[in-house]
Each structure stands twice: as structure tokens, then as C-alpha cells.
Amino acid sequence: MAKHRKSVDVLCAVFGASLMLGGLHVWAQTYPSKPIRFVNGFPAGGPADFFSRTIGQKLSELAGQPVVVENRAGAGGMIAAENVARSPADGHSIYLANAGALAFHQHLYAKTPIDAFKDLAAVTLAVGVPEILVVHPSLPVRTVQELVALSKSRPGKINYASAGSGGMPHLALEALNIAAGTKMVHVPYKGAAPAVTDLLGGQVELTLLDIPVLLPHIRAGKFRALAIATNKRSSVLPDLMTMTEAGYPTVRADNWYGIMVPSATPRPIIARLNELTVKSIQAPDTREKLASLGANAIGSTADEFLAFWRSESDHWGKLIRTVGIKLD
Fold this sequence. Notes:
The chain is of the alpha/beta class. Helix content is 48%, strand content 19%.
């Protein structure tokens, strides 16, 4: 009798699990059932805003629901990350995360508002975008070597802007300080857009930011580009040397953005969202818009993104420890 009872319990458990999985798959088939919030962690006018709106427009077309972009600037993207992590785990709140929020902050702070690896789930690696080192035209330098020489002659007198403390521009330029023996001074901003505004006005002398936000100003002659911080030249600025060619291979700033959801989001919903977002990213008009500004449309599986995310966290964690930056 006990054996019979145990068999019945097992069958009930299997049947219940089947019903639950079936319900999740039906839910995934009807997803999205309402507007999608697409949150990014930076102000309007910056690269994260541009990527959100470009991908969001196509996602809305494919999903048949409005995609509402929200800019929740501050703390290098962590305000936005926490907002989405604490949202209902139904796939209707998604986060365009930058490398800083996902791969840097756990190494920079003793305590963060969320544990990204525990509280967020990867959907897809969305966009890759190299960063460019630029100076205000009033600075009398045309190469990285000339910038280094000038900075050494003016220790502590040349200021560089970043999109926030602990972000990729900050870390990359501190890596340049270490590699070159310079003492350029960090001036953090709440995003790329305000950093660019002050560089245009001459309040700071240089910055290193994503190509899309700098390219129009480079083409207009308002900024002078010195190098691209990757190992490969850009198709939109083919004559611009790399930092490796300039003699500083450790100064790497190959930024990336990925799409995240709350960690409790059911796997079928993540799979459906991955399908929709990858199609949005790889659509010809989306790819063209991104490529026109030097960004690379990617689109990956959730597992591929998770593996990449972990490798990036390891890489930048080592650099942060070498540079000795702590932001507590």
C-alpha cells in the first residue's frame, strides 16, 4: 500500500510539473501582453539612450507592443539595474546594461545595491562599441605620444572627463596613467552626454567614450581624435590608430551592452525575449543605424552572453585590483 501510495505521489508531482511547464509555455506564447519598459542607466543623448531607442523601435514592431524607453541615470548604471532587478519577473521590464554595471561594480564596491549575477538574468549581448580617445582642439596635441609628453610636463594639470566613476572610460584612462607614468586628473560625470557638453565648452581637456556619442563632434572638427582603444581599427574612422599601435596595448576600452531581466523571470519568457531582441538587433535597418556610428550589432544566446559576461568580469576585476581603485 505504501509503495502504491508513493507511486501515486510521484505521478501527481510529474503531472503537476507538466501542467506548470505547459502553463509557462502558453504564457511565453502570449508574451508580451502589455507595453515593455526598456530601462537604461544613463541620460538622454548618450550611447545607451541611442541603443535603447534604436533597438526598442524594432522590438516594438516585432512584439506588437509599445516599448517605452526609461533613462534612470546615476551610479554608473546601478540605479537602473536595481530598478529592473526589483521589478516583476514577467519580461515586461528589461534593462540595457553596460559593461560597468555588470562587470566592474562588484570589484569596485564592498557593497552594491544588488548582486548582478544573482539578481539579473542574461538575455542577449546586444551591441559592441569601441571607445575613442579625443581631446579639445585647444590642447596642442595630435597623437597619444604628444598627449603623454604634455601631461608629463603638466602633472596634475590636465583633466579628463568620464561617464562616471568606475566605468570603462575611467578605468581605461587610469590604465593609461599607469602605463605612461602620467598624472591626468579624473572628472566624473553622470553619463556621456554631460561629459561631452563640458568637453565642448573646454571645461575639461579630454575624454574617452563610445564612438556614437563622439563621432559627430569629431567629424565637425570640435574634437580631435587621437586613438581608438581596441586592437582593431574602426571602419568609420579607418585612419585612426589603435592604442596598441600608439604603444599602449593595455589601454583597452571595447565597450558592450547587454539586455537583462530579473533573475526570477521564467526561462520560456527569456527564450521568447531573446528571440525577439536578437531579431530586432540583427534587422538590416537596425544594423545599418548602429554601424553608421561605429557600433556593432551582435545578438547572442543567453548562455553565450552569460559566459562572455563572466569572462569580462574576471578581466576587469584583475585590472581594478592592479589600478587599485576602490569607490566605497
